[in-house]
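Review session, final week

We close the course with one last complete record, chosen because it touches almost every idea we covered. It is Bacterial bifunctional deaminase-reductase C-terminal domain-containing protein, a protein from Parenemella sanctibonifatiensis with 360 residues. Go through it on your own first, then we will talk.
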Amino acid sequence: MSRKVIANVVVTIDGRITGPGGAADMSVIAPHGVSEQARDRLLEMTRATTAVVGRKNHEGFAGWWPQVASMPQADPRDQVFSRWLTSVPTVVFSTTTTEASLPNATVVDEDPAAVITRLKAEGDGDIRVLSSISIIRALLAADLVDRLELTIAPEIIGAGGAPLFDESPRSSWQIVDHVASDSGAIMLTLDRTPAPDRAAAEMTELPVRRVLRVREVVESERLTDFQGRAFGAIWQTLAAAGSASAEHPYLRCHQETATTMDVEVGVPVDDVDYQGPAEVGSLPGGPALVHTHVGSHASLGEAYAVLAAADTGELVPAGAPWEVYQWCDLSTELDPTSWPMPEEWRTLLVQPLQQDGSEG
């Protein structure tokens, strides 16, 4: 089982991780790190079997935490955390030093995403990223954070505070726990909601589909214009036959050069005699790999990468894939104003397959 990566950090309402005075200004953040509830969270952190920090936090932790275990006046929860931090295997990311100050710490000068990917595949137990902002940002960008523990300080900093999420890609999260602290903060535990593109592609068996289609070689920069013309021709052909299609339209690019595309737009239809600018054709049946992408088409490349990485055994691609636009249909004339926002578009990618060595 893959290990869970958990990152904890204190942020303001507007997502800042420092006060208005810059990187050294912890005036807004610090009071919320020593509440009763924050100390309870320290105990939760000690369940992890690997700690991850950046150089600055490593130096700060090493200068304080090792001595806490032997302080008689220290909170018992702080003492437990102290003993854990000085015994747990710790990865320190740094480009400027090779010396570790904490026991069991190893300094690495590598891409955090690559290191964490390796760690997730090895060993057991959670991996805890201890408030190290540069590491959290890098892991969010690589979609490697499974759980976020955010302490939301009840402050809006505005200009001046360092933002945590400004350069992070879009992602979805589910609140699984929330606690109000006696310092006035809200402590949220959020688990990553798997996006469809994070799921594996699936094998299926497709029937041969009769379609109405328009196929042309067009300049790549004119693709959107072609789609509009093709949908219009298909709708005109459907209307002339007194028919309609509640099926979702598709686009299939048979071949592409640096400047042109041999592209087909169509929609599955019934067994009706159609006469018009669109022609009757078919989409192949048989084994296929399918995968659903949610979001604008600007990020479709991520979904195609999932298809390309799928294990299909002895089966190989049988011609070009196609995209099924599940967010619209041709039961009525296309009305773009009725479509959902692009970030809600569901596009099914279909890659037909065949036995390796068989005729395409």
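Two points worth writing down before the exam:
Residues 17 and 49 are 26 Å apart (CA to CA).
The chain has a mean pLDDT of 90.
Good luck, everyone.
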